[in-house]
Design brief:
Layout: H1 3-17, H2 29-50, H3 57-89
């Protein structure tokens, strides 16, 4: 697989899913998280309707929220660790 065919999907993913790169980047972190949560909830509904089974909406929405919470808290932990390490070096 060429590097171009690998790079394009990765960049497209970052533009949509990485809130430090997408158009939400200018917003405060908590607001970005709230908007990303709303979008995840909306896309859970879209995919549930798309496959024709509204019964899957609940599990899909919960799954998306769990993933978002995990990513948010992991990123926050990394940010705090970086900040702590920087304060120890000064």
């Amino acid at each position: 697989m060429s590097t171009l065919t690998q790079k394009i999907p990765q960049e497209l993913y970052r533009v949509v899913m990485d809130s430090s790169v997408n158009p939400l980047a200018a917003l405060p972190k908590m607001v970005r998280f709230q908007f990303m949560s709303i979008l995840a909830f909306m896309w859970s509904g879209v995919f549930s309707l798309w496959i024709g089974n509204l019964a899957l909406f609940g599990p899909s929405a919960i799954g998306h929220m769990i993933v978002l919470l995990g990513v948010f808290f992991t990123a926050d932990t990394f940010r705090r660790a970086r900040k702590f390490a920087a304060s120890q070096n000064n």
